[in-house]
Task: structure prediction
Amino acid sequence: MVVVAAAGNYGKGSNGHTVYGGITTPGIEPAVITVGAVTTWGTPSRSDDTVASYSSRGPTIDHILKPDVTAPGSRIISTMSPGNLFVTNYPQTQIDNNYMKLSGTSMATPIVAGAAAMMLSANPDLTPNMVKAILMYTSEKRGGLLDWGVGYVNIAGAMDLSANINAKASVGQYWLKQPNLPYSENINGYTAVWGKTITWGEGGYAGNSLNFNKLAWSQTIVWGETITWEETIVWGETIVWETSVAAESGSINGQTITWDDLLAQSIVWDE
Result:
């Protein structure tokens, strides 16, 4: 089962500072696809899109790199039940008698869930680990892993890769049906280049990991478990672990770090 979860809406503190460490349950689970939110500013081009200020940043309390990907989540318009209590209390969210708009990582999550459903329609043999890896691998890399995840979801790219994978190939076998994939898409005049990066537990990896059927993509491996990647995966980013914060929250260079308890915790920096 492919599970997609919202990262949470705790990316900004009451003082306006960016907050790290605010990923909520069940988005902290390593195996799920955890989605952060992007603000598109109402334009068709991706060029001005930014990670939403409210979108929860990583890492998780267990030091796992999250979110996994980001997707549009601000001012999303969708259908509504006429006269619902939310619109009654917040009339500014109503568009007309049939539609309303909302913002949050819970608005971004269905976009990625829909993408996963389309991928499985194109290639029913994909495992949940494959779906997650493909979504990450084809995402457009934008910023730090703790803000954007591995990148801004690229549904067209995910569909291209899904349709060109022979999911029945043996472990270790090259499985691309078309060896010369574009590795980018033109979306409304904007070129979205695949980041070709995944995060696995505490590490970020880049390389040709999706060219071969790996043991990691099987249904018997839980995302984040220790895997021997061979030489086809290289470290994508250097993550420095810090242990200097002992309070529930601390301000580091204008960035606020929050934790679930008062004990000393480790902080993952995204650069």
